[in-house]
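Here is one chain, start to finish.
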Amino acid sequence: MMEALPTALEVDEKEVDEKSPESKDLLPSQTASSLCISSRSESVWTTTSKSNWEIYRKPIIIMSVGSAILLFGVAITCMAYIMKLGEKRIKILKMTGPAFLSLGLMMLVCGLVWVPIIKKKQKQRQKSMFFQSLKSFFLNR
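Its structure:
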């Protein structure tokens, strides 16, 4: 049984190493991964500019939700130390308060970091469009 297993694996490796004629016909630009990448990326040739809301919508929402969760965590933590509740309720508040604090802070920081990344990406896109226009200008002469 142990001797039959390696021979079966060797046969499979030989079959994998050999390229089928169908794979030779495919061009690199026609693979599924490149089609997915090209379908997700925005076209350089489109000149429609997006509004600031469309550009910064996701970071603003993340920062807003993160701020709300952070404030909720502050309120729960303050309630745990200020109010005179039962010992079981205070333990629950002391556990959940810092959890909401950390979750809210994490979301707030992610949104704050996302904004400069988007700004840098917009500048790179503008430079790319500028160089594309220069390239087309000199090639069309």
